Amino acid sequence: MSRIAGIAASGAPVRDRTEEVLDQLRLVFPFDAGIVSSVDPATGEPRALVTRGYPDAFADYLVGPEWYAECIEPFGLPRTGWPVRERDLPIDPMSLQGIMAGRQAGLYEGLLSALITPDGRDAGFVMLSWAEEASPSDDACALIGHLSEALANMVDPLQSAHVLASTLGDAYNAVALVKGGTLVQLRGAPAPALVDASAPARQMVEHVLSGRRNSVAFLWPRAEGGWYGCRAFRCGDGVAVLGYRELESPYGLTRRELEVLTSLVDGASNSEIAAQLWVTTRTVRAHVEHILEKLGVASRAAAVGRAVVEGLLLPRHAGQSSA
Predict the structure, then answer these.
(1) Which of 128, 156, 158, 233 could bridge to 123 as Cys pair (CB 3.0-4.6 Å)?
(2) Residues 183, 205 within the same domain
(3) Its pTM surpasses 0.90
(4) Residue 323, domain member (yes or no)
(5) Are residues 20 and 139 in the same domain?
(6) pLDDT, tens digit (0-9, with 9 covering 90-100), for 15-52
């Protein structure tokens, strides 16, 4: 256990550490297939760090929404602090699509454990399967249970600013903001309009750094036209990371429509938005209709959900514009 914990805490690349951890776990539980996933800090979606032995289609399924809804959320998230085996499930395992798919791949037992960080965030999961019908031993479960926090820290990009910056998409630039105001460019080109000490966008990042929020996503106007798509995260190493990429017009939304969408997220009514923007409620209704059409959603609630997840919001400092 101490050997695996040491590997998890080392400075090697996360994928290399994960491979080594699986090698060590196999000495305790000789699994035939295994997967370690992490949660994308930008989208909240799971993704595979390392997979072994699973058919490609099944491996893809394991990091999809169906598997999470069917097995991770109801059974995998820790309630007792230990991994879950098929025999531990409170329902017939054969009633679960994921278990049936595993049987079709020749895998009959295994264990599953969500990886939860010390501050309670879902960082991913580890699952190990084998072709035998016997359940993994209590000792194997205990080993994973004792190591789950160390493994969560290993796969969690928010534990390190540099690791987080490396996980952002290729289009992103990234800068780290350290308490006290020091800036460190992590990748790409700096954007003074975002990170200058007096820039309101930087104040959004400082809110994250101060602990008021774990993360925030927003848009910021570029001087030459278009937008910066921004995502700020508070990391475990005492810094905030701001990732930003250049965008033209997300979903074809105009600036005024983005202002209206931001107000919808704040819970404002049409009349309240009209008063804020000095327009008529009829104009606001027209803007809302255009927003729903451009986002391809059927309701204001769905538009709000899309805006929050994708960061289609304007900080109030950026929300002032002409009609």
Answers:
(1) 156
(2) yes
(3) no
(4) no
(5) yes
(6) 999 999 999 999 988 999 999 999 877 667 888 999 99
